[in-house]
Amino acid sequence: MHIKRIGLPLPKPWSLLLLAASAAIPVSTLAAAPPQRWEATDKDRADARALLEEIVAIPTAKGRGNVPRLIDVLAARLKGAGFSDADIIRVPVTIDGEVTSGFVVRYAGRNTALRPVALLAHMDVVDAVAENWSTDPYKPVEKDGYLYGRGTQDDKFGVALLVSTFARLKRAGWVPERDLLLAFSGDEETGMLSTRAVIANPLVRKAEFALNADAGGGSVTSAGVPLDFGMQAAEKTNATFEVTALNKGGHSSAPRDDNAIYDLAAALTRIKALRFPVIFNPITRAMTEKLAAEKGGETGTALRALLADPKDANALAVVRRDPSAGNFLWTTCVATMLRAGNAPNALAQNAVATVNCRILPGTRVADVQAEIAKAAGNPAIAVKLTGEAVESPASPIRSDVMAMLQRALDASWPGARLTPNMSSGGTEGREYRRAGIPTYGAGSLGLVMPQDARAHGTDERIPLASYYKELGYWDTLVREVGGKAR
Fold first, then answer.
1. Which terminal Cβ of the chain has fewer Cβ within 10 Å, N or C?
2. Mean pLDDT of 78-102
3. Cα gap 218→9, rounded to integer Å
């Protein structure tokens, strides 16, 4: 994942990054003082880039069957650094007849009484429409300081950085206090079944928390000045419903008042007017405070009024006029697709609309479904959930995790400040949270927005200068999360 900005984008452009502040929750066993700053060498940068180029060149979109091949590359790199066969675990999953796989790597720690920490990334990509690219999407090429290729942003840069960091630290003889786990999925973009298989692994399911390389990062100016950097701590649930009107049909020469298309149209008009309430959690309350200060004026005043009274009708009217100012405060539903009828000279026997909802953490999908059915205003209109909607809680904002992530950010972008966020798009963090493993976005990839927001799109690319900065970020973070080491 990575995100678009309300002041800050991270790589996935359809995901809304919303900013917040932290709340302290004490924890125990982690390093309190920052380690000595490590500086990447030219060889370190060359090795990390070579690995990224090698795995970008392997098309790992659904249907291509190449995730196991990519794992071969990663496993070879890690074994060459000293990881044993027992440390490297493949988690094969067959989906629609295709074998993909999760990938777990254990960096053994000194103290087995401490719970491990999982480091997440995904190895699959959304396939590219090659004829629309200015380069071959699966032949990485450097242009103007960027590396072009499918997956450079989403999310093979995270895979390459984590593997490079594990390999370099292993070669150097570093031993963490606690176990650290690479936990990579092979179908994040299409279903997250491999994510669930990875979470079920006995090592991963013991994790105290997870850090997701697909859900951190920030924005910088074209001159390289840092602007905003975020840490995802929550996601909206993505639920899709079919709203259906049925009719006995008939000949178009004899129209009647009962008509499936008109019935559906009337229902959709009422659903359009459906408004879900403002619901605050610690993350969205802090987001609102920050956004009120940034917006100022009428919108800022209205946001502050909602903090005092979430039912303030006048304030709601102001904020709802600016979707970027408030859609993180409530659940949203919108019609996205239509199909109806079977012939131009026949009354429709069925009319179906697709309604997609982005649901706040803590809100039940079944309750949203009931509200849509109620809003439709016609008991003959059916509202059915399609596919699976994964309800996932927000992660608690832990002061120790925030401190470690901030120190890692200091290593790559001195002076930048980190704020927690909730995204409206989905990452595999939702699966870890619903499994009881708090999950936080990690990473400091700095993108110039909006021009660098190309994940899933044409000419996806990553700024190499920012990619190289990530080596220092992950060295700092892995050492901090690993705790005291000798």
1. C
2. 98
3. 6
d(CA 185, CA 182): 10
What is the DSSP pairing of strand 16-19 with strand 418-423? antiparallel
Could you tell me which residues come within 8 angstroms of residue 322 by beta carbon, excluding any fewer than 6 positions away?
299
> In this structure, how many other beta carbons lie within 10 angstroms of the beta carbon of residue 296?
10
Confidence of residue 290 (pLDDT cuts 50, 70, 90): confident
Token pair listed for 268? 């959709």
The per-residue pLDDT for 325 is 81
Separation of alpha carbons 401 and 84, rounded Å: 29
Cα–Cα distance, 25 to 341 (Å, whole number): 56
Which residue's structure tokens are 């496993």?
75
Please list the residues that pair with 359 across neighbouring strands: 237
* pLDDT at 5 > cutoff 60: no
Query: Using N-to-C axis directions, what is the helix angle for 156-171 and 464-482, rounded to 10°?
Result: 50
Strand 350-359: give its sheet, edge to edge: 332-340, 350-359, 237-246, 382-386
Instruction: Say which amino acid occupies 127.
Output: D
- How many Cβ atoms from other residues are within 10 Å of residue 177's Cβ? 18
User: What is the per-residue pLDDT across 187-210, written as a single tens digit (0 to 9) for each?
Assistant: 999 999 999 999 999 999 999 999
Residue 385's alpha-carbon distances to 20, 216, 245, 353, 393, in angstroms, are 31, 31, 15, 12, 20
CA distances from 423 to 360, 385, 396 (A): 10, 22, 15
Note the residue count of the chain.
486
Site of tokens 């060295």: 475
Examine the pLDDT at 14 and tell me if it is beyond 90: no
Nearest to 186 by CA among 299, 303, 301, 68: 68
